[in-house]
Amino acid sequence: MNTAVRASSSVIIRSTATYSRAVTKAAAYPNAAAHSAKKAVFFRNAVSSKHYVINSTLLRNRLICNASDAAAPAEPAAEAEPAEELMADRLDIRVGKVLKAWKHPEAEKLFIEEVDVGEEEPRQILSGLIGYVSEEEMQGRAVVVLCNLKARNLAGVKSDGMLLCASDAAHETVQLLTPPADAPVGERIKFGSWDAVQTPPDAPNRVQKKKVFEAVQPDFNTTDEMVCRYKDLDMCTSTGVVTVASLKGASIS
């Protein structure tokens, strides 16, 4: 304890003790009551005129608490709450490239495509786009591919994924989603911003069991600027947004 504080505390404590003895003596000896009362008043005034009466125990505890507060380490800053998980992030939607496409020999509306989605081998995907997109237009085209659908057979041929397209309400016009020309093949599409934190996609079995695509698909749309979105969040790559050729206010599937 600081020497000045210690000395001041000692004087105050002694004065207080003397005051207490004077009051006690006045109560014990009635004949000396007047004298003792005057003496008690003198000490009370002497103390209160210059100092506050300090309880030594409280003073010591206060000094200890102050020292502890100063020595205590700063509490770590509260962690930021994680962003709300997007349902669309449960889908594995990637930039792809059609390596070649040809008509299904036994299904008049189906193309069979070999599509590079950034894996060791291209995927085989079937799309019902005949009548909407020409065979020539399909060759070497950049596309957007839903990759975590469970593989299934279409007209006897295995299809492992889906090319995403926009369509008008009457389903008379259908257009493939188009990533920027310089977007890396295999890159996963994000929503809202390329800097957005994205959770890992669900496994194909879970996507099918939980009907994830069916839950998300109604919120896919295109803007008046032909930008593709999930709700009001743009579909983004590292080099720009996903678009369509001309459809505005269209659905995507």
Which characteristics define this entry?
253 residues, alpha+beta, five-stranded antiparallel sheet, 6 helices, 23% strand
Question: Secondary-structure blueprint of this entry?
Answer:
Layout lengths: L2 H26 L4 H18 L5 H16 L21 E11 L7 E6 L6 E5 L7 H4 L3 E5 L5 E3 L2 E3 L2 E2 L1 E3 L6 E3 L13 E2 L12 H6 L2 H5 L3 E3 L5 E3 L2 E5 L2 E2 L9 E2 L1
Antiparallel strand pairs: 1-2, 1-4, 2-3, 4-7, 5-6, 8-9, 8-15, 10-13, 11-12, 12-13, 13-14
Instruction: Estimate the mean pLDDT confidence.
Output: 80
* Series of secondary-structure elements, N-terminal to C-terminal: HHHEEEHEEEEEEEHHEEEEE
Summarize the main sheet: 5 strands, antiparallel
Given as residue ranges, the uncertain stretches (5+ residues, pLDDT < 50) are 1-20, 22-54, 78-82
Radius of gyration: 41 Å
Task: Describe the strand arrangement of the main beta sheet, using strand numbers.
Answer: 3-2-1-4-7
Q: What general form does the structure show?
A: globular
In total, how many beta strands?
15
Look at the helices and sheets and give the structural class: alpha+beta
Number of helices: 6
Distance between the termini: 77 Å
The portion of residues forming beta strands comes to 15-25%
Percent in helix: 25-40%
Describe the protein:
The chain has a five-stranded antiparallel beta sheet. The two termini are 77 Å apart. α1 runs antiparallel to α2. With 253 residues, the protein is of the alpha+beta class. The model is unreliable at 1-20, 22-54 and 78-82 (pLDDT under 50). The protein has helices spanning 3-28, 33-50, 56-71, 135-138, 204-209, 212-216, and strands at residues 93-103, 111-116, 123-127, 142-146, 152-154, 157-159, 162-163, 165-167, 174-176, 190-191, 220-222, 228-230, 233-237, 240-241, 251-252.
